[in-house]
Design brief:
Layout lengths: L1 H10 L17 H4 L28 H12 L39 H10 L1 H12 L7 H6 L4 H24 L4 H35 L12 H12 L1 H14 L13 H10 L9 H7 L3 H12 L12 H18 L23 H41 L2 H19 L1 H12 L2 E3 L2 E2 L5 H15 L11
Antiparallel strand pairs: 1-2
Protein name: CHAD domain-containing protein
Organism: Streptomyces thinghirensis
């Protein structure tokens, strides 16, 4: 597996201008759209859709790969099943073999509509273009193409790959005694790409904050310092089953369907509800079901195999129901690999040239391959974190836009009030305890973490009630 990274680095000239990389099929977005998308479920001739069910100009990887298989009758194994083979292509002769032209050595010089199609299909060409842009390339329309709402996250992914590539190539040159001018050129490109990456991440963050603020989700309200509201909330948390039953009954009285009042106790339950309600465009296909059933070792093999592919990735790993497991497994794999990659941590790729440890040529080659795999796993983990953030935002926006949201809030407020009426002794005990921290009537200034104070109060409430009536969360 590691050798494929070494060959990949040589084949694409490490994002340079070498045309020796294996040619990609010459595809257009309109052609790929003639088939249904296995990732988002978009029908034939329909655009791909984001998780938030919005049309996007970016083609999903699964749609592109499926089209290539069908159009050219290729027997392309899935990335996790594809063995690493190194063999020369068979000689071809005769007319009409024009489907696989040599890759353009400088793709950023293509007409903009052709460039848009190329970066849809080829991640490595996207990495070339974002690198050239970071190093000073100016062209009308290029900034919007690379960093518009549809493609900014893909460009961040490409910049991450390019930054690691430049760093590892520079390290190898330094440790093997390369030419100083070549080393300085790589260092300058690495700094430019790193700066562009940070600026683009800040740009994405500003876009996210603006959208969530416009939807009323941000800024998050500060924890209440009203002792009355806090006592009411802690009473509801102490009696969760009774509170949920009240919410269901009150919501039903407002005309809400029973499914809308089901209490969500885990992230997978929340994601499944959003998919079932049509809030997320994420079909649960057979490939997703198979991935969810994999044991730990098979799942790890799957993510490492995916890391070996930049242009043909494993789309099922990006499914909302798989994302958290993917991120956690990537973190575990990185922690296990860190010593052999000579990286002191799993936060980022540190500079290997800061150490003066001597190494032989064979050791350098092995270390180079190991660090490339480590770097691409870091890249994948960053991708998974961005996808998880986007998923959480999408679910929050969908819930806010659903008509049941305000009705459920009203039912919840009424349920808390009813709990106070039913259990005045418990409510009064919580209020009396909080009164010690009041700076004035109804206003708190707690001297200890809320969780610790709440746990102590719950212990006292349990002592006030018979054992069989203790809070379900405390039994």
């Amino acid at each position: 597996m590691c050798s494929s990274f070494d060959d990949s680095a040589r084949a694409d000239g490490a994002l340079g201008t070498s045309p020796t990389r294996r040619a990609l099929w010459n595809l257009r977005s309109s052609e790929v759209a003639t088939i249904a998308c296995p990732t988002c479920g978009a029908a034939r001739r329909a655009p791909c859709r984001t998780l938030w069910d919005r049309p996007t100009t970016v083609l999903h990887r699964g749609r592109t790969i499926r089209y290539v298989k069908m159009r050219f009758a290729l027997d392309l194994a899935e990335p996790h099943e594809r063995p690493v083979r190194h063999r020369a292509a068979p000689p071809l002769s005769g007319p009409g073999l024009t489907a696989a032209p040599a890759p353009h050595p400088q793709p950023w010089r293509l007409p903009l509509h052709e460039l848009a199609d190329l970066v849809n299909v080829s991640f490595l060409d996207l990495a070339k273009v974002v690198t050239a842009h970071a190093c000073g390339l100016q062209r009308t329309g290029l900034d919007e193409l690379l960093f518009g709402p549809d493609r900014i996250e893909q460009s961040i992914d490409a910049l991450t790959y390019a930054m690691h590539d430049r760093q590892i190539r520079r390290e190898v040159r330094v440790l093997s005694g390369g030419r100083p001018e070549e080393i300085e050129d790589l260092a300058a490109q690495e700094r430019a790409v790193r700066e562009r990456l940070r600026n683009t991440e800040r740009r994405l963050k500003r876009q996210r904050i603006a959208e969530l603020t416009a939807a009323g989700i941000l800024p998050f309200p500060a924890p209440t310092d009203d002792s009355r509201r806090l006592a009411r909330a802690w009473l509801g948390r102490y009696l969760p089953d009774e509170k949920e039953a009240l919410v269901r009954r009150l919501a039903a009285g407002k005309g809400l369907a029973p499914l809308a009042t089901v209490h969500i106790r885990s992230i997978p339950e929340k994601i499944t509800r959003c998919i079932d309600n049509g809030w997320l465009a994420a079909p649960v296909t057979d490939a997703v079901h198979q991935l969810l059933e994999l044991d730990g070792l098979a799942f790890r093999r799957r993510i490492v195999a995916d890391a070996a592919q930049q242009d043909a990735r494993d789309d099922a790993l990006c499914h909302p129901l798989v994302l958290n497991r993917w991120r956690d497994q990537l973190t575990e794999t990185l922690a296990e690999m860190a010593p052999s990659a000579e990286n002191a941590h799993t936060k980022h790729l540190h500079d290997l040239t800061l150490t003066s440890r001597p190494r032989s040529d064979a050791q350098l080659r092995r270390l180079h391959n190991r660090r490339r795999l480590f770097a691409v796993l870091l890249q994948r983990r960053s991708e998974s974190v961005r996808l998880i953030t986007s998923l959480n935002d999408g679910m929050s926006l969908a819930e806010r836009h659903d008509p049941s949201y305000e009705l459920l809030k009203q039912a919840g407020d009424q349920a808390y009030d009813e709990l106070v009426r039913r259990h005045p002794d418990l409510y009064r005990h919580i209020r009396n305890h909080l009164a010690r921290y009041e700076t004035r009537y109804g206003r708190l200034q707690l001297a200890e973490p809320r969780g610790q104070l709440r746990a102590r109060i719950y212990d006292e409430l349990d002592q006030m009630r018979p054992a069989h009536l203790a809070s379900p969360a405390r039994r």
